[in-house]
Amino acid sequence: MIRASFCETLKSYGSEPLENWPPPPQPFGNGVAVHTPPGPPFAPGVNLIRASSNRGMGGDGNDGRSGGLNWTFTAGPLRLYPFTLVATLKRRCHLSSGCVPSDAADMITGNDSPSPPIAAQPHNDPEAGVVDIAAASASARGWASDEEFSDPFDIGNTKNASHESLMRWRQAALVLNASRRFRYTLDLKKEDEKEQRRSMIRAHAQVIRAALLFKLAGQRAIVLGTAVTPPTPNGDYGIGLEELASMSRDHNNSALQQYGGVKGLSKMLNTNTETGVVGDDDELSERRSAFGSNTYPTKKGRSFLRFLWEAWQDLTLIILIIAAAASLALGIKTEGLDEGWYDGGSITFAVLLVIFVTATSDYKQSLQFQNLNEEKRNVQVEVIRDGRRDKISIYDIVVGDVIPLKIGDQVPADGILINGHSLAIDESSMTGESKIVHKDQKAPFLMSGCKVADGAGTMLVTGVGINTEWGLLMASISEDTGEETPLQVRLNGVATFIGIVGLTVALSVLIVLLTRFFTGNSKNDDGSVQFVRGKTSIGQTVDGAIKIITAAVTIVVVAVPEGLPLAVTLTLAYSMKKMMADKALVRRLSACETMGSATTICSDKTGTLTLNQMTVVEAYVGRKQIDPPEDGSQLNAAVSSLLDEGIAQNTAGSVFPSKDGAGIDVSGSPTEKTILHWGVKLGMKFDAVRSESIILHVSPFNSTKKRAGVALRGRTDSQVHIHWKGAAEVILASCSQYMDASGSLQSIDEDNKVFLEDAIETMAAKSLRCVAIAYRTYETDKVPTDEEQLAQWTIPEDDLVLLAIVGIKDPCRPGVKDAVKLCTDAGVKVRMVTGDNLQTAKAIATECGILSAGADSVEHSIIEGKTFRELSDKEREQVAKKISVMGRSSPSDKLLLVQTLRKLGEVVAVTGDGTNDAPALHEADIGLAMGIQGTEVAKESSDIIILDDNFSSVVKVVRWGRSVYANIQKFIQFQLTVNVAALVINVVAAVSSGDVPLNTVQLLWVNLIMDTLGALALATEPPTDHLMHRPPVGRREPLVTNIMWRNLLIQAIYQVTVLLIFNFSGKSILNLKNETSEHANMVKNTVIFNGFVLCQIFNEFNARKPEEMNVFEGVTKNHFFTGIVGTTFILQIIIIEFLGKFATTVKLGWNLWLVCLAIGIFSWPLAVVGKLIPVPQTPLAKVFIKPYQRCIAARRNSD
């Protein structure tokens, strides 16, 4: 018996060993049934037995931490446990001689050569598959200053905020209902647990492959191949799900070869590696039935009952329920069941109503977020079916599909490489290591969820959905751990400030009322003293004390605005839903509001500012301009042949018959498609040309090289041709000759070079993208013959022969000039960052309105990426603010510009579509990826996806971002007005008379109007044009502006003054002297309550337009607002007229209703007059910030 003890964790989802494979479905995660594929019969004579495990894992609440496991080898056939997991051995284990040999460890990760020692790795984003730039640039942006004292609620950008700063504001916040308050914030504990679980599950693919490692540890021998069980037919297919899954999971090349390689496997799967599956509904359904669908179980959203439970967790509501229960018991005991239940019962009903309405609102928000998350997960991928390339949902992929892959794509399923050129895969999402793995026929296995880092290729799908490692990973961690936004954090600070004031007021009221009660200064409505020592019964004393405590607690309910931070979530949920209709998919909540603070937008040109509808409008062959450009009769046959070869072979696109057979369809990037269309018009026969030569090696296009190349060998003459295509000036610089229209070679002397350069500049000045096509012959004996050497071969790019230069027209999008002007008027500077040359960029920028006619006179407004890159840091900062156009820029130039602008205090939005744009998208305050042309890597690094690639949609995002901020400010103004008025009225009345005019039930109703219903009404206001005629709101500017202070103080003072006058002199004003004292008090208090509520209803209109005179403009367009205000008014009438016992009110006559309506309506003209009062420029918040900071500091120190 040989014992091998591992340093890190080996875990099993199953708890019992299996005697027979395949095992039955195993529970995975939260009760998801998973069919476990079989393991190969490794090492006869060696049996693996699990000795011990500290903790389980999955959906049972365990946090994924683990202890060590001991494994024992015994005689007998090897039996693996289902879904055994191992931590990534090379990264997480210290591989010592007592554990496993290092070369064997390399076999686990699929590396043929020994690996160097693993150094500390930077944190990787497992979703995006790129190195986390935040870690590298944190110190540059001064995040280390988090340790110094600052307002914990002042977090300018939560996108890259540290866990320490996020934890700090949570600890500083005053919270009554944590489960509700923090529902939509990042769950820090779950995030850590999720990362631990992700780390564990990533290694699933490796542990089964580690079965060979176990054998090596036991036998100290290396066996590179094992016998493979012949495949078992599965219906119409020659291989079953279990064999496919086993081969893919184990990366078993021996099995693949035994099945006949890719060709043999494709025959077993009834697919063609060139044309794919047939693709009719019946066949696709049959494949899903045999091999599964490309979906994975997701955890269900929270039920309505869960939201009810969370709404119930509010401490003040619990206290009120307890007080209501005590009041109910005492009331029934002293007054009997008929009359005694009213006080306690009405409070209980009011609390339950608050809980129900709150839960309903939260539940609807949750459903909206679920729908948006579904949209985010629904990736569109390209697939070859029936010889055509189509875009389909990732969920529709089936086993047997042929998938073309290019830079930036996500591998949508497990598969086998059919063919590829320089294909490099970033497997960090599965292995946790940022090492790029090159794929070829020796290492053909592709894992779902990984990203294409370089090159291109096609793959055959062999595993989908839950039968892939990625599917298991997603099924386990699909639960969203939330995300907070800067506005949400700041509103928690506002809520904490208001809450501290409210608690102080409530405590003061409690002390005053209890003192007055027990000293005999509190009187009943009939004038009798409420408490007389020695005479008042215990029951009456307790009942009186409970009413006082209930009143004080209710003040806390009103004073602590639990719903204020959640109003951000409400308006974001509403905005995100509406933004989908405006072609913008929000991936990060915080980006939606941050976009409202954007001061500059760095935009791509192609497809964003332009239509992406390219056509070749000019063409030069040598010194001759071909007019019209598609007239192939003007070209010599030799020139046509070489052009056809260069166009058809040096492309990632394809030409195929259209569905109706009447024409052709072309696939590829916009530029590729344009040149292919041009080639077809010249007479190119795409399939015929491609069949005449063999591709030896490909150098794919990327935005750094700005060119693409291919090496070919003819099938008949074995001659090697090298073709290059790319930016005209880049290709021209590598050419020593050109071929004229007659087919003769001419040297590019100074005169010819000047002519060609002038031709390029002339076309560029007409807004044309200039692309050159060139070739050269190459000696056959210099081409590497070995496959590995050929894969590393650098295609020669010098001494080229220029074949053609074409000018491609991509017209500006309609309306883009107006959109740019709208941004300029809104204080947002638009900068164009493009890979095109300066002349083309300048022409397009002028056409779009980014540059004015005299832009040349402004130094550095137009600059090349290389020039900007070579400046010193200080010079770069001086130049960056002036830049309007950056031409010939690389992704690193774009990143450098973003970093410089952010360093200067700008809030930067960046558009991008390529894989290399990912760092800039990640670094920017708001990353905007293109939905049509954007790669999956770019999309996953972005915050918002522009679904139609249109710059006008970017501007709409700015409008919605500003709308989010404006709506929150409206809600804050409305809520603070209610807070101030309710608190002052109750405090003054309590101190002076020992009674509060607004009782518990009434205040709970006011809280409902103010909190949930007010948020629904005001947080769902659509954006207005007024928002785009003012500068961006700075991220450090106070939430409550001086204008808001003016508005709310005027309304609060008015309400407090009028209602307190009614409280103290209401009997005489309302002519109630002839009524009984008790009835007169009831009428007076009812008028105060009714007038107060109507003030809030009418003040909601004022809150809609804090700065404008006409508060009714567009009110009928917001159905939420009109519906909620109307419903509130109707419910108020019902409460007054029909629920007197419930709310402690009496019915009012029409004359008193007119009085109440007059009190409420007067807030409208008062608001108009108030807006004429000027306000100081210095924010009042700065005056009060120091005592507030001292209070927060004291709370932190006490913690």
Automatic annotation (TrEMBL):
Protein's UniProt keywords contain ATP-binding: yes
Catalytic activity entry: Ca(2+)(in) + ATP + H2O = Ca(2+)(out) + ADP + phosphate + H(+)
Pfam families: CaATP_NAI, Cation_ATPase, Cation_ATPase_C, Cation_ATPase_N, E1-E2_ATPase
Domain of life: Eukaryota
All residue ranges annotated as the Cation-transporting P-type ATPase N-terminal domain in the record: 258-332
Entry keyword Ubl conjugation: no
Enzyme class name: translocase
EC number: 7.2.2.10
Transmembrane segments: 311-332, 344-363, 494-518, 548-574, 1043-1062, 1120-1140, 1152-1173
A molecular-function term among this protein's GO annotations: ATP binding
Protein task: Catalyzes the hydrolysis of ATP coupled with the transport of calcium.
Entry's family note: Belongs to the cation transport ATPase (P-type) (TC 3.A.3) family. Type IIB subfamily.
Protein's recorded name: Calcium-transporting ATPase
Species for this entry: Forsythia ovata
Organism classification: Eukaryota, Viridiplantae, Streptophyta, Embryophyta, Tracheophyta
